[in-house]
Amino acid sequence: MTIEERAALLDQATATGEAIPQLTSSEPMSLETAYAVQHKGIELREGRGETLAGVKLGFTSKAKAEQMGVSDVIIGSLTDRMRIEDGGTFDVSRGVHPRVEPEVAFRLGPDAELVAVAPALEIIDSRYRDFRFSLADVVADNTSASAFVLGPWTKIGQVDALAVDLLFDGEIVATGSTADILGDPLRALPAAQRMAAAYGHRLLGGSVLLAGAATAAVALKAGTHVEARVAGLGSVSVRTKEG
Fold it and tell me: Where is the secretion signal located (predicted)?
């Protein structure tokens, strides 16, 4: 398949919520080709009027990276239509098998420096059957990016080793620490700069950098109030529905 054909398959799966086989199940795919597929998918979104809103990092947890057998982070793009307002609603029926992670987000200044920090939720949703994928597959699938929610922005201070809780309907379902994000979420900026330079992503002033997950992802179902609490940064929430 061509890069365009692979991107179109993933784009269709995203639109319909119907899973597809791994792209690598039929033929090998290099990491460079996978990023080309990812960029072509973003071009399809931009062609429908979406605009770039930032970038996100994946495999920032040492445990997750080891599980996938990788030694470096991956990078994906965020668009404006992926953003859900704090306290807003996410329709789980639009996804294949959506999951949620509590994160730390940064806002970039005009020179792509970090100017503010916020608690965040990222909804990931691999478009592949059984939530199974290789490194190249997940990169082509824009690192499973689906939606994100940002809490209140605050001035950047110490952000390492902050306690993180993920709650469903007020009950804690996962706990972690910002130390699980590259050891210190501030390391997300040089990591993003390095990956952006290598694979052609844009770090724009005023855009968002999702630094990575502080806990394992938890499956979403309809009718749930999802909240992330990050000590010292505050909280952020979203409600789920179906249809």
Answer: none
Asked whether 96 and 17 are in contact (CB, 8 A), the reply is yes
pLDDT at 187: 96
| Mode of pairing for the β-strands spanning 83-84 and 145-150 | parallel
| pLDDT, tens only, 12-55 | 999 999 999 999 998 999 999 999 999 999 999 999 999 999 99
Residue 127 to residue 84: CA distance in whole angstroms: 20
pLDDT at 158 over 70: yes
Distance CA 52, CA 42 (A): 9
Q: How many CA atoms lie within 13 A of 192 on its CB side?
A: 30
Q: Tokens 């939530």 identify what position?
A: 131
The answer to whether 157 touches 37, Cβ cutoff 8 Å, is: no
Q: Is 12 helix (H, G, I), strand (E, B) or coil?
A: helix
Tokens 């997750």 -> residue:
64
Whole-model pTM: value is 0.94
